[in-house]
Structures
1.
Amino acid sequence: MRSGTMRLGGGYLEKIVDLDPFVLPFDLILPGRDPNALLPHADLLSPDHVDFEGGNLLLSLHSFLLKIGGLTILIDTCVGEHKPRPRRADWNARTDTAYLAGLAAAGVRPEDVDIVMCTHLHADHVGWNTRLEGGRWVPTFPKARYLIGAAELAHWQAEEARAPGAANHGAYTDSVLPVIEAGLVERVEDGFSLGRGMAITGLAGHAPGQIGLDLDCGNGSHAHFCGDAFHSPVQVYHPDWSSRFCHDPALAAALRTRLLAEAAENDTLLLPAHLRNAFGMRIRRAGAGFRPALS
C-alpha cells in the first residue's frame, strides 16, 4: 500500500505500508504509563495514535521509499511474508500482503532498489529483507546494498551465538543471515556517507546499534530518519517514556530529549519509523517541554 508522496531534499519520499494499524496495548509497549495523562493532547493523538477507550497505542509498520540523487533507497523493511512469528499472531506466516504491490505502484521493482537501510534489526524492521523461494530465504532486493550498523549487527550475532534462532523472533536467521551470506551487507557507522548530503547517524538506545539517516535538504534544512528513537508522538510530550522493547531505556530517553531539542532549534523534520497518517513531525517548544507538528 502507498501513502502519498512528499518532496524532500531534491528527491521524493513515499511510505510503503506493510501493516496499519499495528495495535499494542498501552501497558505492553509503555509499561506503567497512564494514557489518561495524555488527555490534554487528545486533539492531536486521537484517533490516529492513541485509542483512549481501548487503552492502545496505534502504530504503522511501513518502509520509507526515498528516490534521490539517482538512488532508490528503502529504509526498513517491516514484517515480511511467511516469517514464523508465533508469538505475534498478526506477524506470523503472513501471505498475500500488498507490500510488493505498493512498491510496484511507486514504480519500483525489487531489482530497482539500490540501498536497503536497516535502522536496526528488530523483526518488524527487517522482514522484507528476504522472501521465501523454493523453501529458502533469498534477498528480496538482489541488487541492493543492505546497510546495517556495525554495532547492531555485532550484538545480534552474539545473541545468535548464545541462543541460535531464539532471539528477536528468529529474525536474524531468516531475515539477516541470508543477505550476509549473499554478500550484500555493508556494515556502517556514524558519519558514513550514502552520497551528497546523506549521512548515517548513530542512534543507540532503543537498539544497541540503531542508526539513522540525516538528509541535507538545502538552505540549512534537514530531515532525520530516526527509526525507533520515537515510536509515537506520545514520546514528544513525554520523552522519558521509553518502550518495553528498548535495549537501554535511559539512553533511549536521553537520545529522544537531545533529538527534540536539536529539531526544535534547527526546524529539522523528524521521520520516525512508525508514525501513522503522516510522514514526520516538526518539533516546537512548549514551555519546558515540546509539542509535535505532524506533516
Note: Residues 249-266 form the longest helix (18 residues).
2.
Amino acid sequence: MDSEGLVVVGCGGFGREVLDVVDGIEAQDGVHRLIGFVDDHPSEASRAALARRGARLLGDTAWLAASDAPVRYVIGISSGAVKRAIDERLTAAGKQAATLVHPAATVGFDVHLGDGTVVCAGARIEGGVETGRHTHINMNSTIAHDATLEDHVTVNPQVAVSGGVHVCTEALLGTHSTVLQNLKVGRGAVVGAAACVTKDVPAGVVATGVPARW
C-alpha cells in the first residue's frame, strides 16, 4: 500500500476487521495512513466501537465522493451488491481503491490482487490466484492454486477454496465452507456455513449442507 491517506467505507463488524488489517500494516512499516471511516447508516454501537479504537467517523459516502483530499479507500462491507454500488459511485467520483494485505497473511507467486482487495490475518493464497475488485478474503481462509475470485466476492473466515475454482461476481462463501477443485460458484450465489460444494453452483442460489444442495 502506498503513502496516501486511507478511508474505510463501513464501520460495522467487518469494517473494524479491516481496521485490524490497517493496524497490522502500519505496525510493520511505521507509516500512519488511516484518516477515518465513512458510513451512510452508522449504528450507535459502531460509533461507540470506533470511539474505543480512537478512530474518526468522517461522514457518509457522499462526503468521500466530494472530498478533494488525496486518499484511497477500501470497503469494509461484506454484501457483494452493496460493495458494487459503492465501488461504482466512488469510481465515478474519481476515487481510487487501496489493496490491503495483513502481514500475517501468506501470498504465493504470480498472485494478482485486484484494486480494493482485502486479505486478513492468517489467510493463505497460493500461486496463480487472481482476484477482482473489492474481493474480501477473511481470516484463516485458504485459496489454492489457480483459483479466480471475481469482483465483489466475499470469503468468510476459515473457508477452503480448492485449486482451479472460479467464484463469480458478488458470490459469498460462508464460514468453514469448502469448494472442491475446478468447480464454479455462480454470480451472487451464497454458499452456507460449513457447506461442501461438490458440483457447480448456479447463479443466485443459496447452497447449504454436505454435499451442498439448493
Note: The first strand starts at residue 5 and ends at 9.
3.
Amino acid sequence: MEEARRRRRATAQLKEALRALSGQLSLLDRQVSARAELKDVDLDCLDVIGRHGPISPSALARQAGLHPATLTGILDRLERAGWIARERDTADRRAVLIKALPDRSGELFGLYSGMNRAMDEICAGYTETELHLVTGFLRQVTGAGGEATAALSQG
C-alpha cells in the first residue's frame, strides 16, 4: 500500500516536472521568437524544417499541425525574411521542397546557445546509460503527446 502511494506521488512529481519544462521551453521559444523577429508559429515551422528538411509544404503542414492555406502565409514571411528557400524537387520537378538557409539558421543557434551550454553541463553529470534511459523516456512521452494531439484533432 505504501509503495503504491509513493509510486503515485513520484509519477505525479514527474508529470509536474514535465509540465514545468514545457512551460519554461515555451517561454524560451517566445524570447527567441521576439529576438529573431519571428512569430511563434514561424519559429515552430523553422524547427520542423531544420529537423526534417528539406521538406514538402504538405509534410510541413502535417508536422506543424497547420492548415496548408495558413502555411502559405508563414512560408511567404519566412522566405521574405531570408530564413528559408523554396526549391524544385530534383526527383519531381513539379514538387517544391522547403529548406532552411544556413546563414539565418546560425542566428537561432546563437539565441539557443545559453540553453545548449546548460544542457551540456547537465548531461555531463549523467552516465551514458542514464542518458539513454532519459532519451528513451522522452521519446516515449513525445510519442504519447503526438497520439493525444492526433486524437484531439480528429474530433
Note: The longest strand covers residues 84-88.
